[in-house]
């Protein structure tokens, strides 16, 4: 169990640090009482919506998880997590889930190759940028466009980000093969693809 006082101070810190750049992390307390946390907003989300999402995530964790040693919550616009363990710079292998579009594609094999092509490129691109975030699209036949997104928490370095994203991409055949859209969401990174735009217009 973490100290409620330290946890509230951590959330206050993240509220201040996250919205201007879309990311923030920090530690409050010493020794056994230390609590570590980070929040990340999706790369296209503006500061106002980022702050609103972090506020909502904070409320959710305070309601449901304030007596836990660690917790994580995901929304479309942000993720927020904390732990009594120092986790910065390490790929989070424990917290992961999948979401799929209920609709199937006509040619799963060819479509999966295109998904892999797009997301693998985005994995590389994201790992090369300071924000560890990339979006892109790939033109398909029949005037369809495949849209993709890849993002990591910025406590990871480029190679760690790429490994996290590549591992997420490798999960897609097992969880989401033949689906028009899917996402693999983890505590350190996530990937997503759809046949419709998935980020805000700039």
Largest sheet: 5 strands, antiparallel
Count of runs of 4 or more consecutive helical residues? 4
SSE string = HEEHEEEHEEHEE
CATH architecture of the largest domain: 2-Layer Sandwich
Strand content bin: 25-35%
- The CATH C-level name of the largest domain is Alpha Beta
Please estimate the helix content: 25-40%
Q: What is the CATH superfamily label of the largest domain?
A: Gnk2 domain, C-X8-C-X2-C motif
Secondary structure tally: strands: 9
**Strand line-up in the sheet with most strands:** 5-8-9-7-6
Pfam families: Stress-antifung (PF01657)
Organism: Glycine max (Soybean)
Keywords: Repeat, Secreted, Signal
Main location: secreted
Task: Name a few traits of the molecule.
2 domains; Killer Toxin P4, Chain A; Gnk2-homologous domain-containing protein; CRR_secretory_protein; alpha+beta; 4 helices; four-stranded antiparallel β-sheet; GNK2; 202 residues; 27% strand; elongated
Descriptive account of the structure:
- By secondary structure, the chain is of the alpha+beta class.
- The chain has two domains: 4-83, Gnk2 domain, C-X8-C-X2-C motif (Killer Toxin P4, Chain A, 2-Layer Sandwich); 96-194, Gnk2 domain, C-X8-C-X2-C motif (Killer Toxin P4, Chain A), CATH 3.30.430.
- It contains four helices and nine strands, in the order αββαβββαββαββ.
- α1 (4-21) packs antiparallel against α2 (47-65) and α3 runs antiparallel to α4 (158-176).
- The longest helix has 20 residues, at 108-127.
- It is elongated, with a radius of gyration of 17 Å.
């Amino acid at each position: 169990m973490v100290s409620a006082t330290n946890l509230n101070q951590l959330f206050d810190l993240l509220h201040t640090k996250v919205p201007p750049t879309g990311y923030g992390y920090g530690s409050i307390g010493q020794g056994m009482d230390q609590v570590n946390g980070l929040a990340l907003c999706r790369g296209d989300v503006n500061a106002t919506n980022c702050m609103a999402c972090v506020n909502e995530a904070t409320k959710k964790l305070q309601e449901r998880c304030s007596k836990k040693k660690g917790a994580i919550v995901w929304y479309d616009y942000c993720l927020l997590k904390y732990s009594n363990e120092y986790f910065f710079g390490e790929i989070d292998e424990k917290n992961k889930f999948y979401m799929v579009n209920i609709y199937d594609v006509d040619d799963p094999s060819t479509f999966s190759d295109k998904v892999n092509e797009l997301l693998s490129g985005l994995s590389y691109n994201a790992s090369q940028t300071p924000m560890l975030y990339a979006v892109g699209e790939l033109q398909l036949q029949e005037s369809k466009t495949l849209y993709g997104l890849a993002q990591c928490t910025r406590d990871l370095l480029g190679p760690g980000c790429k490994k996290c994203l590549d591992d997420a991409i490798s999960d897609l055949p097992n969880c989401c093969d033949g689906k028009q859209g899917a996402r693999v969401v983890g505590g350190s990174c996530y990937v997503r693809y759809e046949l419709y735009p998935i980020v805000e217009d700039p």
